[in-house]
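Model the whole thing, not chain by chain.
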Amino acid sequence: MSGPRLKLALEHDSATRGRHVRDIVTELKRLHWVRGAMLVAPDGFVIAAELPPTVTVDSVAALAATLGRELETSAARLGRPSFSTAMFSADDGTMFLAGSRIGYLVILADQQVNVQAIRGALGDAVALIEAAWGPGEVRPS
Amino acid sequence: MPLLRRLWRPAERAPQSVPEALRRAEQSRREGRYTEASALVARVLELDRDNLHAHLLAAYLHVARRATAPAKAEFRWVLGHDANHARALIGLARVALEESDTRACHELLRRALRFYPDFPEAAALLEALRASESAPPTRTATPAPRVDRLRLPGTGRALIVGRSDGTLLAAQPASEDAREVSEALTRVVRLAGATLQRCALGRVHRAIIDDGGDAVFVRTDGDLIVSLTLPRTTDPTQGLLDVNRLWSATLHELGVAAASNPATPVNTPAVDPTRRVS
């Protein structure tokens, strides 16, 4: 994997998970060319968000969660593995989405962002979540 | 947490009251601890089986755990007790969308907005739904491009060419599920487009969807969708260059096909002059 790695180590104590999940989002937000990041549950509930003030968090969270579920259910219908990361590039920026057992990590970035670096960082973030939340929580179908 | 403090910490007692259990369930949900939250909701329902808040929370937790059928049952239970419950309406609408029941989704969102016009999530989803409904109509007369003339890169696994209304124009290799893949890609591109527009980032042009084995590189102009499946290890820039080349070749082939069949004119999308590879 190329690019920066997330500088986090999670304690596996459930009481500290709320803070750690916010730390993961904060670390993603710090990456080069990244404008904002969020972790949204599959039901659209915002677990943690650091997005630009111009973005209406609840609306974007609802759409991002719907998109995440669409990626998962499409793959399941076609008998393929669920998506791990997805990138969508538009005129004025790029959005990344990664699936994890507790929800979807979303990154909004400038267009010139290093795609490989962000994919790597998202992989690290998902691995941290997997390690901290353990087998007690379900994995995406 | 220091080891001694961890050892001396008393075990968390079971909540004794409904408000306490609900508060702790909400807290667990906020931290993504769905198993603990579900156990607490179950405790609430033991104490008060008709607690509407607990049933709604149970529905959310089922969705969070990707269990659609019980989520639907819980949302319906809530609506059975409060027919205009906005959160239950939007929850059920999202389940309907997952099940590709856009009519039901539309109706549920409209109901939610009728009673609660300032409901941003419902408004955003309805807008996304309307955008997909206003996609260009199926061009039954659109000639299929000669995909045999579209040269896949050496590592290329599949090529799908479709329209934003889900119409499959061409697939290489021809596979039984090509139409389903094309329709799925259409739904994903539409939803991603709506999300990007909501973030004021403009229209979606490119995508990379990685499933751990393959990476699907997509190019679109909002009407035509060209996707190329490559190994996941493909460098993103190379994959985007490959799909750009196939995009141009597809436009050429569509133009050739239209010219050879002038009775069915095709509004061939304009080639994006920028050709950025981001």
